[in-house]
Amino acid sequence: MIVLNTRPESLSKKLRRICEEEKIELYDAHLSKVEPLDFDENIDIWKLKLNDIEKYSNLIFTSQSAAIYGLEILGLQFDIKNIDQTVLCIGSATREILEKKEIHSISPAVQSSDGLLELINNKYPGKSLLFCGKNSNKNLQKKLNTEVDEILCYELVYDKTTLNKIINGPKIILIYNFLTLSFILENIDQALLSQKSFVVASNKIKEKAIAINKDLKIVVSLNPSDEEMLVTAKKFI
User: Fold this and answer.
1) What per-residue confidence (pLDDT) applies to 109?
2) What spatial distance separates the first Cα and last Cα of the chain, rounded to whole Å?
3) What pLDDT does 131 receive?
4) Which residue of 84, 85, 108, 166 lies most exposed, with the fewest beta carbons within 10 A?
5) pTM (2 d.p.)
6) Which pLDDT score is estimated for 91?
7) Strand partners, 130
8) Cβ contacts of residue 191 below 8 Å, gap of 6+?
9) Alpha-carbon distance 184 to 211, whole Å?
């Protein structure tokens, strides 16, 4: 089996390792890269929220990059091993990053923002401080409303020069977020896309994509982990 990986290179190590172990041929098309936001430009905004951190019951990390760069920001003022708040994250990959820093975290059974929202509403009420990317879909922010503040700590920067790798690459394409699929849909001809099959990380991604192009071939993974994405990709064989 040959699959096309659209994740940034910095987030592809685990996927690459699994493919090597399972003899799956992985074709990389790193459509975007993760760039941390400039510390000098944002430090005053971050410190306003960190200085009042006692008012937050929960700290939320929405992605691996949010954990990596969010912990750096927290570390500006605190020993991150002594955090008193409940730490929540969306999925297992993010949880692994937190565990490496000796931070216990909780993630929902359904690894999505909606799953995390249900977990907060049912078990962890109170105000939350959310660490996320500049390109966030704002799902949690909209639904938690006044019960959440956010710290933006990175952004995904897309590169059109990599799109030829999608056009000329393998049929099966792994999609981990809607921004990436939207970037593809906006820049590649529909006739070419009809030859591709997409494995997406959530139903929400599929719903948004079908609203743009109802003829897309899409299968939704059980969860957004690399392992399950590859299990789902095998359904196209």
Assistant:
1) 87
2) 7
3) 97
4) 84
5) 0.88
6) 86
7) 60, 150
8) none
9) 15
| Cβ–Cβ < 8 Å for 94, 69 | no
List beta partners, residue 9: none
pLDDT of residue 63: 93
Q: Which 3 state secondary structure label does DSSP give 151?
A: strand
Query: Rounded to an integer, what distance in angstroms lies between the CA atom of residue 142 and that of residue 70?
Result: 20
Q: Report the SS3 class of residue 112.
A: coil
Angle at 83 between CA 63 and CA 50, to 5 degrees: 75
**Can you read off the two tokens belonging to residue 112?**
């999505």
- What confidence tens digit (pLDDT) does each residue in 49-107 have? 999 899 999 999 999 999 999 999 999 888 888 889 999 998 888 999 999 999 999 99
**CA-to-CA dists, residue 7 to 26, 115, 119, 138, 183, angstroms:** 12, 22, 27, 20, 13
Answer whether 179's CB lies under 8 Å from 156's CB.
yes
Between CA 85 and CA 105 the distance in angstroms is 10
* Integer angstrom CA distances of residue 226 from 13, 91, 121, 157, 222: 10, 11, 28, 22, 11
pLDDT-derived band at 237, boundaries 50, 70, 90: low
- Say how far apart CA 74 and CA 60 lie, in whole Å: 12
Q: Which range, of 81-85, 153-157, 211-215, averages the lowest pLDDT?
A: 81-85
Residue 214's SS3 state is: coil
Average pLDDT over residues 117-130: 94
Largest CA distance in the chain: 54
